[in-house]
Amino acid sequence: DAREWKLSEIFQYGMIQLLPILSRIKKIDVTSTILNKSGSMFATNRTLLCEFWHGLECPEFSIPIDLIKSVCATSEKLCGVGFSENSITFHFDCEAWVMGKLPKINWIDPNAYLKIPNEPIVLPEDSKKTLAFLKPFAGKSGKVRISEDEIMVECASIPRANWPTGGPFRFSDLDYIASHLTHVERFDDTLWAAYSDSMRCVVSASEV
After folding, report:
1. Using an 8 Å Cβ cutoff, are 191 and 185 in contact?
2. Tens of pLDDT along 173-182?
3. pLDDT at residue number 25
4. Residue pair 192/119 in contact by the 8 Å Cβ criterion
């Protein structure tokens, strides 16, 4: 597919940021694709939905996980994208390209779920260290709950510090938030939002 729309490294960087959210299951659905739409890209695992703002003008399309991995793995600079009826091709400055099948996915409207910041709080500076300590003790459930006093997993707890209360959330979802975002906001025990300069997300205790 010939290059039709100009892209840049920010698009490639966005894919790198969102890749950890995606399912590694081979079935192609919303959990194994990134949706590009209106200057942003979106990824979800059905409990965590994230948006990365890249600000580039290009049409709406979905990107399959195998193609995302290929673009993320190379050090070559992304420069454009092209389409046919059934395929999508990413082009690089070195004149290399990678092509994949264009998924036909019925994505939810992500903006129906994402929240506008109201009164977010700054995540503690040691939030990644806190979760790294708890990770070996998360157990089979892989869930984490935050009370007024402590952050609890199946076999361990640690003082709460500045985290909101709520849960139980997937441990991997809160780990992603601590690694990629800077502010978090509690809407209720089962629904939080998180933000940074180029990203926002919503995390739920149940699948949507």
Report:
1. no
2. 999 999 999 9
3. 66
4. no
pLDDT of residue 1: 86
Give the tokens for residue 27: 């079935």
For the chain, the DSSP string reads ----EE--HHHHHHHHHHGGGS--SSS-SGGGEEEEETTEEEEE-SSEEEEEE-------EEEEHHHHHHHHH--SPEEEEEE-SSEEEEEETTS-EEEEE--------GGGT----SS-EEPPTTHHHHHHHHGGG-TTTTEEEE-SSEEEETTEEEE-TTPPPEEEEEHHHHHHHHHH-SEEEEEETTEEEEE-SSEEEEEESS--
Token digits for 57? Answer: 């003008």
Helix 127-134 and helix 171-180, axial crossing angle in degrees, nearest 10:
150
Per-residue pLDDT tens digits for 183-208: 999 999 999 999 999 999 999 999 87
Structure tokens at 129: 């260290």
Q: Are 122 and 182 spatial neighbours (Cβ–Cβ below 8 Å)?
A: yes
User: What pTM was estimated for this model as a whole?
Assistant: 0.93
